[in-house]
């Protein structure tokens, strides 16, 4: 074989190998770049998926909030039609303050929302002070509006207590408040004495029989029997409805009979 031909073939082979090596390096570099770009693509896809997930989550949350708000508004509208106008609670409370106690009790059975409103302590404070308006300053110690709660009193419970007292002291055993001692007493024709305790129990005393619970009442009965004109000095000043008003100087009808007891 011709050595020149062999040498030429060797050079061509080496050149081909060099070309292949160059292509291999280029392919390896291209593959590395492709892998890098694939990593970027995966990161971008992951970020996009995460963003889509967050967007879907926020969308679902918004939908749930809107549905809840719609249900709440619908419930409020069913309970109180004006709630659709988004009235403040204070305004609704003011509207209910025009109702009487009996109407409030009926309204409390309409719905849960109305039950909450009609049992508001400030509302019942307003009802109490309105019914006994003449003595509201004594009730509160100072005049306050419906939105200024001046005490921790359960006003609805207190209203029921006052009403029960009025019922027990109805007819001939009249309701009365002793200003100094916070006790209720009444004389009927200067022959009988009625006395009420804090539990609304009544005790009627006949002067002739001297049925007395204390020295104070015994002294009063003796004074009534003897016609002592100074009987009013033996007890603190007191008032009652449709009965005798006694003090040290005068005797006449009483106009303070609707004053409830506060203690």
UniProtKB/TrEMBL annotation:
Keywords: Coiled coil, Metal-binding, Zinc, Zinc-finger. One of its GO terms (molecular function) is zinc ion binding. GO terms for cellular component: SCF ubiquitin ligase complex. Residues 81-127 form the F-box domain. Residues 6-37 form a coiled coil. Residues 234-263 form the RanBP2-type domain. The keyword Zinc-finger applies. SMART domains: FBOX (SM00256), ZnF_RBZ (SM00547). Pfam families: F-box-like. The keyword Coiled coil applies. PROSITE patterns: FBOX, ZF_RANBP2_1, ZF_RANBP2_2. This is Fbox domain containing protein. It comes from Acanthamoeba castellanii (strain ATCC 30010 / Neff).
